[in-house]
Amino acid sequence: MIDLITPWKSLTSAFEDDISANVASMLKRTKQPYTLVTLQLMPHLRHQLEQINQLEMPWWNVYDAIADIPIQDGIPLAVENLDWPENAEFVPGTGAVLVYVQGVRYAKCTYTPDDYLDQVTRYDSQGQPIQIDQFDDRGFLSWRRDLQATGEVQTLFNAFGDVVLTKTDADGITVAPGQQRRFRHAHYDAFQPLLDEFTAKRAHQQAETFTILVYRAGFNYPSTQVLALTPYDILVGSGESRVTYTDDVLHRMTSVAHAVIATDMGASRAVQRALADWALLLEKPLRLLSPYSSRLALGHSNELSQLVIYWRATDLVDAAQEVVTRQILTEMLSNDAVVLLASTDDNGTTINAVVQQFVDDTFNVAEDHAAIETVLGYLDAKDQQTLTREQADELDELKKTENWDQVTTAAKFLRRIHLRGIDDHKTMWAALDEARLLLDLSPQIDPFIQLAAISTGVPQLVRAKTEYVTTGKNGLVIHDLNEVGWGLAYFLDGLRRWNESLVYSVAKMERFSDERLIERWQEVMTDADN
Questions:
Q1: Domain 301-511 in CATH: superfamily?
Q2: Hey, what CATH class is 2-70+193-288 in?
Q3: CA-to-CA distance for 166 and 185, rounded, in angstroms?
Q4: Bridge partners of 110?
């Protein structure tokens, strides 16, 4: 039996690149008996499992164990199931229902994306929140926060509405009198001893269990004394945690672990450095094993007249964004077919500023911003077939101005630049479907993105060597950001290198195919059994 300890939180929702979700899927496909172990309050765990097609999988939650909740199924509560004043009025809103009593807001009921009752916040006569109830999607109240003037009181309930324990900053955790027979102590100063107590109980009850622990810095895990009760591997990904030798928690966990699994070369290098600093490098087996597999989903950029650069401009300091942006704009200036699509974590603020300065200097339009906006509005309306007579007349007047040619050239240049916020998986896959080149220069390696580029046959410019990108084949490793312009030209000037990259990506898919990945995970499980 395998326990998969995952650092999921109650709001975890992006599962396509989630390490735990992908490992769970791999264990399912390798027909390994396993249990998903979660260590935080998870009121919507069934919904999360349904998202990854694992609703039928066995799971264990430490809060369920503490509250002695045996059921793993149920029907979510509705607002109508709760007790309300007789004269309560219900006003539906977006994702919520407001409750009024005699015209005064009494409560707000919020829902999950699947329209399950999530929380109910109650207010005093002055409109200040005084109580927040958290409901479990199995149909009961699980957690309450009373917001008192003297401090917050938190209460954990069982499935029958009985109080299990209360927590305050001043007094710590107090177990309810009727529940104390299941606990070692009636009082705990913090949650960690409770976490250890109940995970240790599980370890003693589960004979011949092997654990895979997905590590994330800052997450609250059982102590190493408890973890050592069963053999376990630590799974570390560079996208999950910036591994450093100063990470005392990882150090302690690694010291008693069976082995360390790194999901990518970036994580592997970081773990090796940390193990060396901890004098554990020769003692702990270190494996390189991705939880992600490739899939054949070739894009169709070769059918498009535009050459789309898909730039994931995240985790880059402003100075780095400026250097890269100027080189992209220079490439766009030399090739009218090049289009930039950038996904940014600052709403494009830095890139926009560089673009504006570049356009002003290149086309001499620093005094013509209003005219450029007019032309952009005209072109958009024309494309959408919403052009008005007023817009056409305004453009006719602009054509008479001295700087008309520069204004129109600048506007057409700007129309080839598209900035947006951080992409979710759906928009990321859609972008790669049309991209001629992926630009991912984040210092943090993202194996999911790199495998997605392989799957779509898109060459990549990256910052660090990985097993997913072979420089000169399906991409280039850019050590100096001033080399980005050269890398762009390498794959955008003509089709020969792009075609070679496509062929190499298709061949690389075999190495990271589902079948190969299953074989490698089966080796890990066999090693664990021995």
A1: Glycogen Phosphorylase B; (3.40.50.2000)
A2: alpha beta
A3: 14
A4: 96, 119
